[in-house]
Amino acid sequence: MHRLARARSPAKLILSGEHAVVYGKPALAMATQFYTESVAEMAGSKHIGFRLPQLQYAKQVTLATLQTLKNRVQQDYKAFLAGQCGIRAVLKKPAELIQFTVANLLELKQVMTQPVNVQTHSTIPMGCGMGSSAALVMSALKAMGALFELSLDDAAYCQLGLEAERLQHGYSSGLDIQLVWQGGCLYFKEGQASPRLMPTIPLYGVNTGQPLSTTGDCVMSARVYFMRSTIANDFEAVTNALDVAFSNSDIKMIQHSVQENHRLLSRIGVVPAAVCQLIADLEQAGAAAKICGAGAVIGDKAGMVLVIPENLEAAEAVVQSHGLRLDRIQGDPHGTVLC
């Protein structure tokens, strides 16, 4: 058994199909150059230690405490599914996501008696639609799997990741988990991922800031639109068109599809007015833009916005006029790896 193992998971960016993917429609997404790194090491005490700087959390807990938390969280999630509480009632604190993940793996593989320390570090903007929770979960699972020399295949790791992510978001398509685990660019539908070539045209992003609402809040708010209309089919058509456009490097069709995706996201109420104005100004400058995650249902921030500029200088000027920054997005082909 190893004394220490280290693993890294990339962030993700949904190019098209956010929200609709939860309802069995396709999404197109890519892994990016932001990362979460997790370190798992054998502990010298009888406790499980957590050091999570991005959450400003450092604590040691007993195995019994961890087991109690796992059981409570599972019961609260069942209550959520039964409509007895909101998704925010399931995980009381952000750190409970990784604590559940660790407890779930230790119990599953019957190594619950092994004390371990888990430490994470992340460059992924939290809560901005870039899969920070999925990267946290999968990097921790990979590091712990290596530490305990567990025989788990890709499907088993992704299932463990999905069980954790559902607690955070309520309902999960599995896209984030699959993408940060596998890396590259994927066309994802109903749990099945098909690899795609990374986009060859330059992609840019604007971080508008962490939304006040969670992904779970946005999924529940948008749910009424998908239950009462055929808008999911419109998302599917746009995603398929963008898939073809990227494969042909057709910049005009890419921009048109991104603009149509933005219109659909605005219709389901997850694009704040301030972000809509930013995107409108970018369109006036010849660019196409859209949010890349769940968006927001309160406040004026919506996380990461994808930008496909026609004229880079013009797009940069617009973004700067909103007090924001335009950054180049680079893809990650590797997914979750030991490092």
Describe the protein's architecture and organization.
The protein is an alpha+beta fold and about 350 residues long. It has 10 helices and 12 strands. Strands 1, 2, 3, 4, 5, 6, 7 and 12 form an 8-stranded mixed beta sheet that branches. It has a 4-stranded antiparallel beta sheet with strand order 9-10-8-11. Helix 2 (about 95-110) runs parallel beside helix 3. The longest helix has 19 residues, at about 65-80. About 50% of the residues are buried. The mean pLDDT is about 95.
Order of helices and strands: EEEEHHEHHHEEEHHHHEEHEE
* CATH topology name of the largest domain: Ribosomal Protein S5, domain 2
What is the number of E strands? 12
Structural class: alpha+beta
* Overall CATH architecture of the largest domain: 2-Layer Sandwich
